[in-house]
Amino acid sequence: MDRAYVKLMRWGLMFGLSVLLVAGFYFHAEFYALGLYPLLVIGGFVTLLVVLSFRIVMTGEIPRGRPSGNLVFPLGAGNAVANGGVEMAIVPQRDEAPTVGRVVRAMYPTGAEFGRLLVLDATRKFLDDITDEDARMAGYNSAQVLLSDSEMRLRLDVDTFGTLVRFRFLGKKT
User: Model confidence over 87-129: pLDDT tens digits?
Assistant: First the structure.
């Protein structure tokens, strides 16, 4: 039901934009009196706004540009990230954490990209202070399991801190 509502709203917005575009043709005749250059500048700007509006309505998001970094996930965690089971990554202190609001590449250790992520939050925390909820968001059953995981132990030193990067999966790379 919720998905049908969103689709109906998008189609309604597209219809509204289409009506606005057709109304523009009616007022377009008035612009001829201003001359060619104002017609090109104002018409080009209005057309740009309409095209961007259609893009936002169809995708449901504002375009964010190229990815600005990488988050590397173990081979088994990639599917969990894509399915929404993992919403957080823990980045070691020695690695640079991505900036909030940026899009980053989701990658396997082999270097293969499997999707794009929008960084929602980046919080620095001592690794001993990681809660069970933080660990569950990162794909572990508890904080104890996270800290005892052999792959995580190789990447992290529990006496230091790391960055907890919360993200939203945007989709597969295009």
Answer: 888 777 666 777 788 888 888 888 888 888 888 888 888 877 8
Three-state secondary structure of the chain = CHHHHHHHHHHHHHHHHHHHHHHHHHHHHHHHHHCHHHHHHHHHHHHHHHHHHHHHHHHCCCCCCCCCCEEECCCCHHHHHHCCCCCEEEEECCCCCCCCCCEEEEECCCCCEEEEEEEEEEEEEEHHHCCHHHHHHCCCCCHHHHHHCHHHHHHCCCCCEEEEEEEEEEECCC
- Who's near 32: CB < 8 A, 6+ residues apart? 39
Model-level pTM?
A: 0.58
Tell me how many degrees the CA angle 99-168-172 measures, rounded to the nearest 5.
Answer: 105
CA dihedral 116, 118, 121, 127 (to 10 degrees): 0
Q: Which residue has the tokens 């990209």?
A: 113
